[in-house]
Amino acid sequence: QRSAREQQDGERALREARSVRAEHRDRLQSLQEQLEQLRQQEQRLHQERLSLARQREQLQQLRDELSPGTQGTPLGTVPAKGLGSALATPLAPGTQGILPGLLPALGMFLGDSSEPLASAALYGHLLLLKHRAQMDHDFLENERIFLESLKKRP
């Protein structure tokens, strides 16, 4: 009887030890999953911070480009008489103007008179389109990098 009781106690202790081990294994797995989620969240936050920093830089560039007295721009050199003539003239030999084939001739919008407000609004719109295109490009590049990192994981 005594040895049977000791055997039962031993079996019970073994069951309890296995139960505790299973609980610890489950808890470890849960903690590992939480750690992976935190890593992913940290990566997303890092990417968002980088994106915000780039957007701030781009916004500052746009502010600098739109501020009065700015002469040099990505679209060409702005003459003192207004933006309209700079947008309507080709920027380099062989070019037909800004975004050939995508926009009608700017003279159609501006007419022959160079109204500063209309041309400034159009110039601002072009800069905004450029900014949005760059943001889209950055987003797609980040997505490409993210997908590549997912492919590399085991």
From TrEMBL:
Pfam families linked: FBF1 (PF21007)
Stored InterPro entries: FBF1, FBF1_C
Domain of life, source organism: Eukaryota
Domain spans labelled Fas-binding factor 1 C-terminal: 3-152
Entry GO terms, CC: centriole; ciliary basal body; ciliary transition fiber
Location of region: Disordered: 1-25, 59-78
GO process annotations (BP): cilium assembly; establishment of epithelial cell polarity
PANTHER family assigned: FAS-BINDING FACTOR 1
The protein, known as: FBF1 factor
